[in-house]
Amino acid sequence: MAADLAEIGVFGGSGFYSLLDDVREIKVDTPYGPPSDSFFLAEVSGRRVAFLPRHGRRHTIPPHRINYRANVWAMRSLGAKAVISPCAAGSLQPHVKPGDFVLCDQFVDRTRHREDTFYDGPVVTHVSAADIYDPELRRIAAEVIREHDIPLHERGTVVVIEGPRFSTKAESRWFGEAGWEVINMSQYPEAYLCREIGMAVVNIALITDFDAGVHEGTEAVDARSVLEVFQENAARIQQVVLDMIGRFPADLDALGSRAALDPTRGDGHAISPEDIRLYETGL
Question: Does 105 participate in catalysis according to the annotation?
Answer without folding.
Answer: no
